[in-house]
TrEMBL record:
Keywords: Ribonucleoprotein, Ribosomal protein. GO terms for cellular component: ribosome. The lineage of its organism: Bacteria, Pseudomonadati, Pseudomonadota, Alphaproteobacteria, Sphingomonadales. This is Small ribosomal subunit protein uS9. Belongs to the universal ribosomal protein uS9 family. The keyword Isomerase does not apply. Residues 1-48 are annotated as: Disordered. The gene is rpsI. Pfam families: Ribosomal_S9. It comes from Sphingomonas albertensis.
């Protein structure tokens, strides 16, 4: 039976290829450089390429933001930090300071206060939903203008559409879940 077996060197000579090294020979380092850099079987991962900057002909980034029933169309361009909503300044349109804080959260996290002008049109819903829609739109437009900011904005959760909407009213009920008052007699 040992006569039928051929060594790896004999097989390699038949195929005109060099004989493969024994497993023990491969494991031993041959120089000091081999000791410093261990060999791994994992593929080398290249860093993810950055997304491209998406601008229109006027040099603005455009995005759509949504929250509840409100839809905001947002354009971002370099400027002095002026935010215009439906042709009015943000202090006039959103009189409550909490709503203005919601809009400016994105610039606070990315440390870009006063560096971009924002023009947006928003319709539908109430003031709270509109402020959330503008925030969502600014977040998306800012990441299209500066793709480097995408990781920090996404980590803060500003790129995610808040899918919570009003629950529909059901028949046989007073509201979505509230039942009519029960009368025993």
């Amino acid at each position: 039976m040992s006569d039928n077996r051929q060594s790896l060197a004999d097989l390699a000579s038949l195929t005109n290829q060099p004989a493969p090294a024994a497993p023990a020979e491969q494991a031993l380092p041959t120089s000091e450089g081999d000791l410093a850099a261990p060999v791994s079987n994992e593929p080398v991962r290249e860093p993810m390429p950055l997304r491209e900057q998406i601008l229109d002909k006027q040099g603005r980034a455009y995005a759509t933001g949504r929250r509840k029933d409100a839809v905001a169309r947002v354009w971002v361009k370099p400027g002095t930090g002026k935010i215009t909503i439906n042709g009015r300044d943000q202090e006039v349109y959103f009189a409550r300071p909490t709503l203005r804080l919601v809009i400016n959260q994105v610039f606070g996290i990315t440390e870009r206060e006063g560096q971009y002008d924002v023009v947006c049109t928003v319709k539908g819903g109430g003031l709270s939903g509109q402020a959330g829609a503008v925030k969502h739109g600014i977040s998306q437009a800012l990441t299209r203008f500066e793709p480097v900011l995408r990781a920090s904005v996404k980590a803060a959760g500003f790129l995610t559409r808040d899918s919570r909407v009003v629950e529909r009213k059901k028949y046989g009920k007073a509201k979505a879940r509230r039942s009519f008052q029960f009368s025993k007699r």
